[in-house]
Write a structure and sequence with these properties.
single chain; 5 helices; five-stranded parallel beta sheet; globular; Alpha/beta knot; about 160 residues; alpha/beta
């Protein structure tokens, strides 16, 4: 199974790239984490933000792996504890289906993307910087995997 982390935004700061890679490389091949960056629309003070979000959503939908189980990361989603995420990861692994975790840009995910998602996961009621979400998600996926495999990382 592969987990595709589809995130709006490119050219992230080095600390984001390094943080994400640190956890992604720890995961075994049967739980591979793959980053798919979706170009963000150029924002300015007179930008049509609704159009930009729709365009980003259209690009994201085109980048999704076929027949993947889609999970949006969104504040109104279900908040999972780390243990609940581990249970969810076990379900995903047993399904054998690829997973796509969907992270929007500064204004969130397009409505079309949210509508296609089979699940919605909320990392926090706080609004998090979307680059930081990549690192948090990669770490939590690794932590959930370590729980399932009785690895000492999770204490």
């Amino acid at each position: 199974m592969q987990i595709h982390l589809c995130a709006v935004g490119q050219a992230m700061p080095n600390w984001v790239q390094q943080g994400y890679q640190e956890y992604a490389k720890r995961l075994p091949r049967e739980c591979e984490l793959i980053l798919k960056e979706i170009p963000a629309g150029k924002r300015g003070k007179n930008s049509d933000v609704a159009r930009l979000i729709k365009e980003e959503g259209d690009k994201m939908l085109l980048a999704l792996p076929p027949r993947a189980h889609l999970v949006s990361l969104d504040i109104p989603g279900k908040p999972w504890t780390t243990q609940e995420l581990a249970c969810q990861l076990k379900i995903w692994l047993e399904s054998g289906q690829n997973i796509a975790l969907l992270i929007g840009g500064p204004e969130g995910l397009a409505d079309a993307v949210k509508a296609k998602a089979q699940q919605s996961w909320s990392l926090s009621h706080l609004t998090l910087p979307h680059p930081m979400v990549r690192v948090i998600v990669a770490e939590q996926i690794y932590r959930a995997w370590s729980i399932l495999n009785h690895h000492p990382y999770h204490r």
